[in-house]
Amino acid sequence: MKLLKLVPDNTNIDFMRWRNLALILSILVTAASLTLVAVKGLNLGIDFVGGQVVRATFAQPVDIEDLRGRMNALNVGEASIQDFGDSRTYQVRLPSPPGDAAESARIVGEVRTALTQQYPGVKVGAGEAVSGKVSGELAQDGLLAISLAMLGIAIYIWFRFEWQFGIGALVTLFHDVSMILGFFALTQLQVDLNIVAAFLAVVGYSLNDTVVIYDRIRENMRKYRKMQIVQLLNLSLNETLSRTMVTSGSIMLALLMLLIFGPDVIFGLTVAILLGTFVGTYSSIYISAPILVWLGVKPDSFLRVEEKSTELRGSDGAMV
Amino acid sequence: MFELPRWKIWGIFLTIIVGIAFAIPSLFPKSQVATWPALAPRTQIALGLDLAGGSQLLLEADLADAARQRLAAMEDSVQTELRRAPRIAVGDISTSGGRISFMLRDPTQIDDAVERVRTLTQGVGLTGARTWDVTTQDGNRVFMTQTASGQAEALKNAMSVARDVVRRRIDPSGTKEVTVINQGQNRILVQVPGIEDPEALKRLIGQTARLEFKLVDQNADPNQVAQGRAPAGSQVLPMADGSGSIAVQRRVMVTGEQVAQASQTFDQQSGAPVVSIRFDSQGARRFGRATTENVQKPFAIILDNKVLSAPNINEPILGGSAQISGNFTVATASELAISLSSGKLPVKLNVIEERTVSADLGKDSIESGLIASAIAILAVMAFMIITYGRFGVYANIALVVNAFLILGIMGIFGSALTLPGIAGFVLTIGAAVDANVLINERIREEQRRGRKMLDAIDTGYKEASTAIFDANITNVIAAALMWYFGSGPVRGFAIVLLIGIITSVFTAVNFTRLLVALWVKRKRPRELHI
């Protein structure tokens, strides 16, 4: 049987030739993403801003304006209504009421009762109420989890490799996470706690990719001590290219299946991870590797100090 | 590498067999697993509420209310203590500003008084710090302030009692597998699978259920009561049905703590739902005495500072049982009965987060989640076979074993599978594939460099292992941090990722290596298509 080869043997693509162009492009897109987040903002779910959500599936398609009118008649705040996949499933979202926390939970009950009474055959699938106090903590928790995960990993890479690699991984992560944020700002998909899990998955995958390439760079630096850094990076990227393609390919394949056949509830989560996989693959090649050049990694970076000095003496000797 | 020590081979197989054995029960319905022989493993993966359907409430203690209650209780103790012989006369006692203060009529008794109220405080922990600080001022005034450690200790005790009370209140409502756990310092998480309308649950938990019997103050001027003013020694309380208010004596006849049993019944005359209670022996004595002394006078039945009803005492009630009426429905009467027999909450609890998912939605999610996961895994498996041939098959066997190991370990630890967990599962499958991709690509490379087949395989496994190690440790760090600092879905995702990374390295590296070794040993192949 002839086996599939996504990447031919012994490729020799000059990735580094485009590194400045890629850098400019990456900076532009990152800046655009962050601007988008600043201008349009994120569509934060009740997990992070507090409020109430009731999701219901109706027996017949309903008129959105009529539904909105009925919800607003309850006098529990301005209802925002979003359809959920088909024309029979809707999500009614209400802002956090002023006053005590129990009020928020009571409103969910009221909306639930009103829906059941006014629409025969309706099925209330889910009801959630998060008070402003908890939502603040959830947002903090989420941010803390992401930041600490990034920091912890950077420190580990610094110890296992060199400080330049730690910084490289951090910058790469920053790029990838900004990209995903920009995507959510652009599409206005709702950001809830599940999406934090997606961010963490992206962080994990992006690092995985970066570390595999760094590992090969380290190996080649030990092997080819005299090679120019740019040439060495190109070699390492080409050697790992086949692996990069097969792994990214299979993960994206799995996520695509989840996107098509999976439950609606995890749509946002899956899209985020899928995009993250793509961006993570790009950035491990065009950000994490070139940054080593700018940070001045030399082929002898991985030599121990005494080895460095004998090496220097050797070349001195040759000159004499 | 092709001559593995025997113990290692057995170790790998044993781990896998145990893992699969513990995963199998999760694939069958619970009712069926219950009939299995005693020796068979029965560990099942719990489903999170988002998949199983049910309600989750996060309750938070009202700290201000708790502090007020502690002050009031201490004030009571102080008064009782100083009234005991030899009595120390005090005046101007107040609990404002978060501390208790009182003045001594006779300043020479101050040392005595301080010593006696100090016996009411307790030491905390090993440091010997007390729960309350007792200080004096001007030689005749005593202050009592609760210390920080005293507050923490009191809150800890209150939260643990509150958790037990909440559990007792939910358990009789006939639901199973209720989770009631303390979270942080002042929160309780309640998860009840199967309950889709959390309203009843909230009413049940929300009642402090402080039941008191007090005499109605018949001397109070109705006009003054309407303005909220009551004579000395009495207080004005609202009626529970909203029909105005009533003046009652401050002195408590009997409290709900002396209730031994409570149940919902029907009134024999009117047929209305009522709550029948039976007092314990002390309560029965006190109730008997109070009703004997006050025949033909009305007494008020007070729940959480609202008057449920104020019937007349027609005759002394000596049997130790009584009936509480007050516009109940069957449901509210049985809720009150449960609340009363489970005891009063030591602290007011507020619902600060509520999530409900219907069983239908949960079932839909898990079905489409499982189908999607299965399709995803099949797609990846097909991809691996057309890319790596025989080595792809080995990677796939490892993949399936890996899936079972994750299920088995989650079953053993009792961690719940949630929707984000399913996404974590798919991601782990991807990561597991990566380890084999790294190995197989490396073997291809070594072959291209002209190594002989066996040498290429050996070097491939060796050289790929540093990259696999580094890549997975970074993921373990990320997963561990998100598990520790995250909440809800983040944790559900992290736990699957954490378990999955560990099992995937084991299956993708150790197990496939064993499969390759067995193949090489038996077939003695001359060349390798990879």
Automatic annotation (TrEMBL), chain A:
Its placement in the membrane is given as: Multi-pass membrane protein
Query: What residues does the Protein export membrane protein SecD/SecF C-terminal domain cover?
Result: 114-296
Q: Which domain of life is it from?
A: Bacteria
Q: What is its main location?
A: membrane
Q: Name one Pfam family in it.
A: Sec_GG
Which keywords accompany this UniProt record? Cell membrane, Membrane, Protein transport, Translocation, Transmembrane, Transmembrane helix, Transport
Membrane-spanning ranges: 21-39, 142-159, 166-187, 193-214, 235-260, 266-295
Q: Where is this protein localized, as stated in its record?
A: Cell membrane
Has UniProt tagged this entry with the keyword Oxidoreductase? no
Query: Among its keywords, does the record have Transport?
Result: yes
- How does the annotation summarize its subunit structure? Forms a complex with SecD. Part of the essential Sec protein translocation apparatus which comprises SecA, SecYEG and auxiliary proteins SecDF-YajC and YidC.
Q: Which PANTHER family match?
A: PROTEIN TRANSLOCASE SUBUNIT SECF, PROTEIN-EXPORT MEMBRANE PROTEIN SEC
Family, per entry: Belongs to the SecD/SecF family. SecF subfamily.
Q: Function, please?
A: Part of the Sec protein translocase complex. Interacts with the SecYEG preprotein conducting channel. SecDF uses the proton motive force (PMF) to complete protein translocation after the ATP-dependent function of SecA.
Protein name (database record): Protein-export membrane protein SecF
From TrEMBL, chain B:
The main place the protein resides is: membrane
Q: Which UniProt keywords apply?
A: Cell membrane, Membrane, Protein transport, Translocation, Transmembrane, Transmembrane helix, Transport
Domain Protein translocase subunit SecDF P1: start-end pairs: 161-218
SUPFAM superfamilies reported for this sequence: Multidrug efflux transporter AcrB transmembrane domain
Q: How does it sit in the membrane?
A: Multi-pass membrane protein
Q: Which residues form the SecDF P1 head subdomain domain?
A: 235-347
Return the Pfam families for the record: SecD_1st, SecD_SecF_C, SecDF_P1_head
**Localisation per UniProt entry:** Cell membrane
Q: Quaternary form? A: Forms a complex with SecF. Part of the essential Sec protein translocation apparatus which comprises SecA, SecYEG and auxiliary proteins SecDF-YajC and YidC.
In Swiss-Prot or TrEMBL terms, this protein is called: Protein translocase subunit SecD
Native source organism of the sequence: Sphingomonas swuensis
